[in-house]
Structure formats: C-alpha cells, structure tokens
Amino acid sequence: MSKDAAKTESQSRTRTVSWADPMISAALMRKGASGMEFLQKIVSGEIPPPPIAQLLGFTLTHVEPGFAVFECDPAEYHYNPIGVVHGGLACTLLDSTMSCAIQTMVPAGSAYTTLELKVHLVRAITDKTGHLRAEGRIIHSGSRMGTAEGKLIDKDGKIYAHGTTTCMIMKM
Q1: Which residue, 7, 55, 66, 171, could crosslink 138 as a Cys pair with Cβ 3.0–4.6 Å?
Q2: What is the average pLDDT score of the chain?
Q3: Domain of 107?
Q4: Which run of H or E residues covers position 151?
Q5: For the residues 105-124, what does the mean pLDDT come to?
Q6: Rounded to whole angstroms, how far apart are CA atoms 55 and 164?
C-alpha cells in the first residue's frame, strides 16, 4: 500500500443519521389532510421530515399554493468518486421540490406520485458551493395529473440544475 493510500484510509469519516417512523406521517396524510396542510405541518415541525431528507441533509423550508422550497448545504458526504457532489443530490432536491409544489394543490383524500422527471445538471456542486435552494413551481394542476418546473440555485441566484416533472394524482 502506498503512503498516500494509507493516509487516505486513516482519514475515514463517519456520519450518524436519525429519523422518525415514516408510517406515522403517512397515516396522518391518509386521515384527510390536504397536501398543503400536510406540507405546512412538516415546515412547522409538527410532522417530522421524511427519512430521505434526514439522510441527505435537506429541509423543506417554505410552501404556498403551487410553490415549494427545499434547502441544503452540500457536504463531503454527498461526493461521488471524482470529488464533486453526486448528481443524485440535485435530482433528489428537484424531484422533492417540484412534486411538493404539485402536492400543495392535492385535495384531502388524494395522493400523488412522480411519473416522469427530467433534470439538467448545468454546473458542478462541491462542498465549497455553499447553501443551495431548490424552488419548485406548478405549471399545471388537474384532477389526475400535475406538472411542475424547478431550479436549484445558490444565494446569488446562480443556477446549478433545473428540471420538470409530471405527477399522477390519485384518490386514496
């Protein structure tokens, strides 16, 4: 083993993640909250965030009808083997914010699921990029289908990724 490889092995890192039982929040949604009411309870802390948010370190910070915002600070634990943040982080943030923009319009007794997701990664993200904001905005909300667009930006409004989604809306 080379000296550099031994040095890298000795610099291992750890990260501990805790989360709440996701079936508790899922049951609350089934009890008749509208999508908007449900998401507002996550923002206020009345409902715990989903495990994926805890695992990847992002937070739902704002919702209003047809609009949702998630925020994240990219870190080394998001890195891929070539030393930049994995594109999956941007994709997950955009999927979350765009689908939640649609969820804000979903009536009580309904649910949704992502059918299609398209993401354009336009610049590399590193742990030096700083705080990122994912904004999702509804394009169309119908009784069975919703579409939304989203962008992932830094504090200066520089775009790191953007995308679109289609979600199916269904009765529970």
Answers
A1: 66
A2: 93
A3: 22-171
A4: strand 145-153
A5: 95
A6: 24
